[in-house]
Write a structure and sequence with these properties.
This protein is an alpha+beta fold. The radius of gyration is 31 Å and the shape is flat. It has one domain. It starts with a helix and ends with a helix. The mean pLDDT is 77.
């Protein structure tokens, strides 16, 4: 009899705990907006620093090497701006054998039109040419043309 009353009392105790009224759930309305747009009303400025190394081979003189390094630095800066504005496409393949990676190939591709970029600063030091470039984009232009819809 004691066992029965103990079990009954224990079940009553557990049952009493589960009878509590649940707390009211507050519903939140989430506005349906295009969350990919930037909520900025002023200009967006991208800044990058491109680098180019002066080639050692097949150059007649240092001036030619410096011009080639400058061109490489400018192209590198344009590539970085395109990556920031449009993104970068990555293709990757990986072969696995015996739980080990045997062949790993990754390729990156950037496509985009960079228009209106300005060179802010140029510097040639220790055989490396540095070009700091900026691109100013109107926020309205960004939202209308460059975001995914």
């Amino acid at each position: 009899m004691k066992k029965f009353s103990f079990i009954f009392g224990f079940l009553f105790f557990l049952g009493g705990c589960s009878c509590a009224t649940p707390a009211p759930v507050k519903k939140i309305k989430i506005p349906k907006k295009n969350n990919l747009q930037i909520a900025v009303k002023k200009d967006i400025v991208f800044k990058v620093t491109g680098t180019g190394v002066a080639p050692c081979e097949n150059m007649c003189n240092m001036a030619q090497a410096k011009v080639m390094a400058r061109r490489a630095a400018i192209l590198n800066a344009y590539e970085q701006l395109a990556e920031k504005v449009y993104g970068i496409k990555i293709d990757a393949q990986d072969s696995v054998k015996n739980m080990m990676s045997t062949n790993n190939q990754i390729s990156a591709q950037v496509k985009g039109l960079v228009k209106g970029a300005f060179i802010d600063k140029e510097e040639f030091k220790n055989g490396i040419y540095y070009v700091t470039m900026s691109l100013k984009i109107d926020a309205k232009n960004w939202n209308n043309n460059l975001t995914f819809k």
